[in-house]
Amino acid sequence: VSNLQAGENNLSANLDSVDYFPTQVGNKWVYFYFDAVPFFFPDTVEILGTGTIDDTLYYVSSAQNESNILFPKYARKDSAGNAYARFYGNDQLLYKIDASTGEQWQVTLNPPQTSGSEIMYTITLTGRDAVVETYSGVFQNCLEFELRTGSITEASYNVWLAPAVGIVRVDGWG
Predict the structure, then answer these.
(1) Mean pLDDT in residue range 125-150
(2) What is the sign of the dihedral through the CA atoms of 26, 74, 80 and 20?
(3) Which residues contact 98 (CB under 8 A, 6 or more apart)?
(4) Is the pTM of this model over 0.85?
(5) What is the pLDDT of residues 90-129, one digit of tens each?
(6) pLDDT (tens digit, 9 = 90+) per residue, 79-93?
């Protein structure tokens, strides 16, 4: 379980905003991860800069590796606000902001030179108006996504995105 502890965004926290995946250089999110109370540890994700890959502008985060599906190292948005991530050289839809509730799509992590280690996630938008409570406060009108895989290893995560803030909570196992 991770909860947003504090955020420093270059955006106003306007709940009327439709930007669920803010990408401004300097944005920073601090999360607390809980394995078992009272054992928790903080983690910080920050947008460090931008870079162009194959003529596409990406925001580069402080995530440690290219396979981090929850907090991607390279991310971008399209004009509708949908969030894409670059995993091992492939641009893939991660959070479809304009999806209908129940709509599903696939993300495949296929590390190079590791035959048979492909991990496919099915992502589903499971809710459009969730209320999420974290250490930073209560967030209204959150989108809830489920990320589930059964390839190689089984894992399931729920991710909540709040307007003008981004990821505010992650629950899951795997």
Answers:
(1) 93
(2) negative
(3) 80, 81, 82
(4) no
(5) 899 999 999 999 999 999 887 766 666 778 899 999 999 9
(6) 999 999 998 888 999
Report residue 8 as tokens. Answer: 């420093």
12: number of Cβ within 10 Å? 7
Of residues 10 and 168, the one with the higher pLDDT is 168
Contact present, 27 and 59 (Cβ < 8 Å): no
